[in-house]
Amino acid sequence: MVETTGGQAVYRALDVVAHLGRHREGARLGEIADALTLPPSTVRRLLRILCERQFAVQDPVSRCYGPGPQLWRFESAQIDVRSLRDVAAPVLTELRDATTETVFLSVREGSEVIYVESVPAVHPVQMYGRPGDRVPVHATAQGKAILAHLPSSLVTQVIEQLRFPAFTAHTITSAQEFRAALDAVHARGHALSVEEHEAGVISIAAAVLDPEGRAVGAVCVGCPRFRWDPESLEAEVAEPVRRAAARITALLFPLAGATAAAEPVPQEAVDVR
């Protein structure tokens, strides 16, 4: 690879950023230095700058470094579906086992929601959906869960794309009604869909969030209406769904709770092992 003259510092900083992106679980200063074959003093200086600019964070307990808020913005805007699916898979299976119903993992694309993973129910009669299937955001629990945790400007763009087709007598068919539903979802932390897309189907969903509280996907439990009424589903399944979404968030962004090192760690306190 040809490097531009005078760009060595930038190249090194970008190499550090790339390393942090590949090791979101956290990496120690010495590990980064060894991987990039750079002096620890150089890596320490670069990390200090990256932390000041919020491209990196350091966990105050483990002393590990990971991606910071500036990188989270890029990650959440272009979440890697394969990583999301791999991270979420065991959590989805546990949620299915706990609820015995079909569990979905979804992401938004435009005004639609795409299933990226599904774990079938244990019952012969169940809700079906295959990875790659698309459903409308306005008529599904996962669509409402995702949009309720996106910036208002983006929500407005999506709503402007919608024509609000009615799939059943219970489908939301106006922007005003949809905005009110999103406000309610944001307030309670989960979304409910009662026969809004398919007659006889009920579902409940919670958003998977990035460290800034923006949705990157949603976890959903879907089931036949004859087995659940809305009150029972919320009472018994809402909390497990919210916990599952929160666990996937924690697995996707393991250092999200770390505080950016606005005040550099004293050099003698930095462990370079």
Give structural notes.
This protein has 273 residues and is an alpha+beta fold. The protein has 2 domains: 8-68 and 255-269, Orthogonal Bundle (Arc Repressor Mutant, subunit A); 79-252, GAF domain (Beta-Lactamase). It contains 9 helices and 8 strands. The chain has helices spanning 8-22, 29-36, 40-52, 69-77, 81-99, 141-147, 152-161, 175-188, 230-252; strands spanning 56-58, 65-67, 102-109, 112-119, 134-136, 191-194, 201-209, 215-224. The strands form 2 sheets. The chain has a 6-stranded antiparallel beta sheet. A two-stranded antiparallel sheet has the order 1-2. A hairpin with a 2-residue loop joins strand 3 (102-109) and strand 4. Helix 1 crosses helix 3 (40-52). It is elongated, with a radius of gyration of 22 Å. This is IclR family transcriptional regulator. Residues 7-69 form the HTH iclR-type domain. It comes from Haloactinopolyspora alba. One of its GO terms (molecular function) is DNA binding. Residues 70-254 form the IclR-ED domain.
Poorly predicted sequence stretches spanning 5 or more consecutive residues: 258-273
- How far apart the termini lie comes to 30 Å
Please, how many helices? 9
Output the radius of gyration.
Answer: 22 Å
Protein name: IclR family transcriptional regulator
InterPro entries: GAF-like_dom_sf, HTH_MetabolicPath_Reg, Tscrpt_reg_IclR_C, Tscrpt_reg_IclR_N, WH-like_DNA-bd_sf, WH_DNA-bd_sf
Keywords: DNA-binding, Transcription, Transcription regulation
GO molecular function: DNA binding; DNA-binding transcription factor activity
